Amino acid sequence: MCTIYSIKNIFVVEEEEYMYEALTVENANKIKQIILSTQLEKEIVIDKNKVNISLRTDRVSDNQIEENWGNNEFFLENESNKEVLTVNNKSYWVSIKVGWWRDTYRIKNAHITLGTNYYGFGRGHNFFSQLELSQALEDKNNIYIVKNISNLAGDGSISRLNSGLKDKDKKLQRRNELIKRINGQVISYKNLNWLIVSKFNKEYLYNEEKQCEIFYCFLKDFLEYSLTIEEIIAEEKLKKRDR
Helix %, strand %, coil % for the chain, to 5? Predict the structure, then answer.
């Protein structure tokens, strides 16, 4: 996980419910603004060599309104082209969308999806990973972008990890493997366990000098989390093929 803050790498749930609260609407809107209006200042490189997946980006396109749902969308780019993702030696684009997902969410238009035209990710959809700021948490010092690790399906869960599986124990094993590979921290809130995908200091949110850092770390964490899921799924497919 990107480090513009102090964090312990732990693999178990904290024993006590800390003083977490739901992310405020004001802070959610500020996060959205940073994501949609900030440029990358450092290169992000992610390699999953065992399964021939890699991504390299050092800039993002201007934000635009996508046609289908009217959500905000921008594309990851590098100096060579707009196809920043490579899978099995073929190149594909990657985009981020921020906007509406469903009317029942506490914070409107705060859903973040990661999409690509490589349809091996995400079961044929044009997105393969999601975050919802309505489910994000904060305390007096930090903001936590999280995913529900308790439930195997439903809002906020990591349902993509269930791909190809029916057995509950194997689904849980994949979640443990994800936590291990990204050095994840799991916290407890309202009787559920939440995996921290990205975390940053609250004071940085309204400090213009830190906003590029927040954007870089959020994007790097989100990409690492998402591509690690695809790595785990791809590895198991290869094992089955080689049996």
Answer: 35, 30, 40
